[in-house]
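can u do me a favor
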């Protein structure tokens, strides 16, 4: 079974805060692997990076960690799927810090080779013996049969194979005759659209060894078309309206045209045969024939220009011409066979590609500023050694990064502003373009009109923070009573302290009989008190335990349930009632008999540094956590009876609670109340937008290919008016649409 990529991150417990440089480190390694000095990030580990299908980064502009928890119920998909989370240091220019500094590249393509100021992105003049083409085929000429894919190569590259489970119903071409070096070559290319079924053929072209077109026909898809992909296929709804030819008709015609010893040639021909639902035993794939290191592939357009001197897939045309592409692939294969691997390697295709990319980037960057300013900068500024951008490195290695949203990359790799794009438009473009790119940055926004750097927006942001603070405060607070006059407050504190660390405890005297208001430091403690002490006898009284009744608390039970279902809390339980004298070593020994225990987190007081009387246990399997809950409740550890429940608060939320508890007293109740009123009118509208945004991300995530690393970033806000930390969520999608962890 093919290995899948996995992601491991030590992010359990208190929030792990990641800097922009550390995020850059992760994305660079995920995109480039060991090339270009990319190394494993220091704070997490990607296993089998070479098996990643791609990297997709979703940036939600003007959003911070605060927004994620404020709209927690609305972000249903995000919290149930993305189990790896981290706090992100805010940046004044987030996208620039994400790309890394764009180096001032100066390239010169001469007969002697290529020189550049960014040596990290440019390969040196290659030793032909190390060329991947020579390593694969040797230097001598061979016949065409030496370049046809073996059965194993076809399986590895997802070609339809006779008898395989995924090819049920596929048509076999019946070209079973033994191939020889004089067998006829045929170029094949298809254009596809996206339908309810998946990729379906809309146009098929077949050319013979002389380049004559034998078949060039439109095809009516069998299922409802979702996306015509006109930008690439050239196919429109109007073109297909009069078409009556179906896939079965094309299959029959191809079987008649192809002789029994035919060899099909194409560029990534597996996708064409899959869409045609046909099996052919002998193929030459030019994307594999012109071999590159580490499984990378040259694009057909580049090979046609570099090897044949032909321009294809012109941007002036609407979509690709399949007959042109089929002919180009055929001629490339003929060139390779006639000239031999040695001559092909001497073309130095890797260097040609690098020179082309760097010259294009340098030329277009220079065109961005006026001549006078450019000359003045050259006179006044010393040479600057800057960190090369891994997006530039992607481009010069033949990979085309995708940037969609407020800023986009044009065909030359330059960033352009596109502020008017809606989230829906960006999503549609992303669904269409992401499969064509190995690295994508998709930018959404909660509200396109919202600008967090504006003073008024900053005021609203603080107001929303205070509103969020009130809700958390209410959830952490419980009221217990009634008690008899003269009851022992110390007894109450002792009993309720068994549920977790208490922040404050006060007696309410405005009632007929005294009540006690208890504010905890963690949500689990407050919830445990409500669940275990309501109706219990405490300090000589049978008491009722409840949270305050406020408008913000009406959906408290729903929020508690959703927190329990949060994927980050899966397999995590909260344990209270520990003696503060117990060390982490003592606890590990006590809990060693629990199956599949992975991590123990013992919170500390941020001011004194002392351990709290509670801990969190993380298990490898959710069922092991459920079994541990049954065992632990009622356990006695060194004279202390333990209480436990499912975890509710992730490390980030735990940190927020602590900050809120220690800052609330400095705010002033009247001001808080006033600011709550300021945001109440737009609150419902923002919730709807957050829910819609979550749906967009869900749709995008589900469309991703398996083994794709997906990172969602709430970049935070950094301005002259203050800063709010960001939040990152990440997953590697697997066959079940969940993390491959």
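np, heres the sequence
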């Amino acid at each position: 079974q093919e290995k899948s990529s996995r992601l491991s991150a030590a992010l359990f417990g208190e929030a792990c805060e990641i800097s922009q440089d550390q995020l850059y480190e992760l994305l660079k390694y995920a995109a480039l692997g060991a090339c270009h000095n990319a190394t494993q990030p220091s704070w997490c580990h990607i296993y089998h990076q070479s098996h990643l299908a791609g990297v997709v980064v979703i940036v939600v502009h003007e959003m911070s960690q605060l927004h994620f928890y404020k709209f927690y119920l609305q972000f249903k998909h995000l919290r149930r799927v993305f189990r790896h989370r981290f706090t992100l240091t805010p940046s004044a220019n987030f996208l620039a810090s994400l790309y890394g500094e764009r180096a001032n590249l100066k390239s010169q393509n001469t007969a002697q080779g290529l020189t550049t100021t960014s040596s990290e992105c440019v390969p040196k003049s290659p030793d032909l013996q190390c060329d991947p083409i020579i390593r694969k085929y040797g230097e001598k000429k061979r016949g065409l049969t030496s370049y046809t894919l073996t059965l194993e190569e076809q399986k590895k590259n997802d070609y339809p194979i006779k008898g395989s489970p995924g090819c049920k119903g596929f048509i076999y071409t019946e070209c079973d005759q033994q191939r020889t070096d004089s067998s006829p070559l045929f170029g094949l290319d298809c254009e596809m659209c996206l339908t309810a079924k998946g990729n379906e053929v809309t146009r098929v072209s077949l050319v013979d060894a002389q380049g004559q077109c034998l078949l060039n026909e439109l095809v009516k898809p069998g299922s409802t078309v979702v996306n015509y992909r006109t930008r690439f296929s050239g196919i429109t709804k109007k073109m297909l309206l009069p078409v009556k030819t179906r896939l079965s008709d094309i299959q029959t015609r191809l079987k008649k045209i192809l002789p029994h010893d035919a060899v099909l040639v194409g560029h990534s021909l597996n996708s064409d045969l899959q869409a045609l639902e046909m099996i052919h035993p002998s193929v030459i794939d030019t994307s594999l024939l012109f071999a590159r290191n580490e499984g990378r592939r040259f694009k057909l357009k580049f090979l046609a220009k570099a090897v044949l001197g032909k321009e294809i897939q012109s941007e002036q045309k609407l979509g690709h011409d399949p007959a042109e592409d089929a002919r180009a692939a055929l001629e490339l294969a003929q060139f390779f066979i006639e000239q031999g691997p040695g001559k092909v390697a001497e073309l130095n295709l890797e260097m040609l590609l690098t020179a082309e990319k760097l010259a294009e980037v340098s030329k277009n960057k220079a065109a961005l500023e006026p001549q006078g300013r450019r000359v003045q900068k050259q006179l006044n500024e010393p040479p600057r050694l800057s960190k090369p951008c891994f997006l530039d490195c992607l481009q010069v290695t033949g990979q085309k990064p995708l940037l969609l949203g407020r800023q986009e990359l044009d065909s030359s790799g330059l960033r352009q502003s596109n502020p008017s794009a809606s989230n829906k438009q960006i999503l549609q473009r992303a669904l269409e373009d992401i499969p064509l790119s190995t690295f994508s940055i998709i930018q959404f926004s909660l509200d396109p009109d919202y600008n967090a750097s504006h003073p008024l927006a900053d005021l609203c942001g603080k107001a929303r923070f205070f509103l969020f603070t009130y809700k958390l405060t209410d959830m952490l607070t419980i009221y217990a009573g009634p008690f008899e006059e003269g009851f022992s407050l110390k007894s109450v504190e002792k009993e309720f302290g068994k549920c977790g660390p208490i922040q404050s405890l006060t007696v309410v005297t405005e009632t007929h009989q005294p009540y006690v208001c208890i504010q905890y430091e963690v949500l689990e403690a407050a919830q445990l008190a409500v669940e275990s002490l309501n109706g219990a006898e405490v300090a000589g009284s049978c008491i009722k335990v409840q949270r305050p009744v406020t408008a913000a608390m009406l959906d408290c039970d729903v929020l508690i349930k959703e927190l329990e279902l949060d994927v980050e809390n899966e397999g995590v339980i909260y344990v209270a009632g520990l003696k503060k004298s117990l060390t982490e070593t003592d606890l590990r020994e006590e809990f060693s008999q629990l199956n599949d225990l992975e991590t123990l987190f013992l919170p500390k007081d941020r001011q004194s540094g002392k351990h709290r009387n509670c801990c969190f246990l993380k298990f490898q399997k959710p069922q092991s956590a459920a079994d541990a809950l049954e065992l632990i409740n009622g356990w006695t550890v060194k004279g202390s009876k333990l209480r436990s429940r499912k975890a509710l608060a992730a490390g980030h939320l735990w940190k927020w609670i602590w900050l809120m508890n220690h800052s609330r007293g400095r705010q002033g109740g009247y001001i808080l109340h006033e600011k709550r009123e300021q945001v109440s009118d737009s609150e419902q509208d923002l919730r709807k937008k957050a829910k819609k945004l979550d749906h967009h991300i869900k749709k995008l995530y589900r469309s991703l290919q398996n083994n794709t690393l997906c990172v969602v970033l709430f970049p935070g806000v950094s301005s002259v008016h203050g800063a709010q930390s960001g939040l990152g969520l990440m997953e590697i999608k697997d066959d079940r649409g969940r993390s491959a962890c």
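Residues 459-546 form a domain with the Alpha-Beta Plaits fold (CATH 3.30.70.330). hope that helps!!
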